[in-house]
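Pasting as-is:
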Amino acid sequence: MYCPFCRHSDSRVVDSRVADDGTSIRRRRECPHCGKRFSTVETATLMVVKRSGVAEPFSRDKVVTGVRKACQGRPVSDDDLAKLAYRVEDTLREGGQAEVDALQVGRAILPPLRELDEIAYLRFASVYQDFNSLDDFQAAIDRLREEDAARADG
């Protein structure tokens, strides 16, 4: 890390703190050459590779926008959507990869969306999983019912 004051090629970390809900680290540094102190912020960038092959930074706002359409007319608040987006990001970051494909993002959305609202889940799944007929909807509903019954029995 170069000193912004004297451009010396080394610096010493004096203090580190987690910032921005754990998504970045703020470090206080000191230059051994000139003695001045400065701060840096380090973040790990999570990239999403789209179907076209283009990579872009992960965006919680894009998750919220995509899920909001499925939640239209449902009793889901903006706060609920923001929490869902954070859960999706946490799930993806837990995988430890710097790049994930868009398909993984969609998969990470489904479980918390189902917990939030099953109708919104079905709407999102119908687009995301490319439902083509009523049979696809019925199969998804049957799976939900089976999982609910297993959860109630277990």
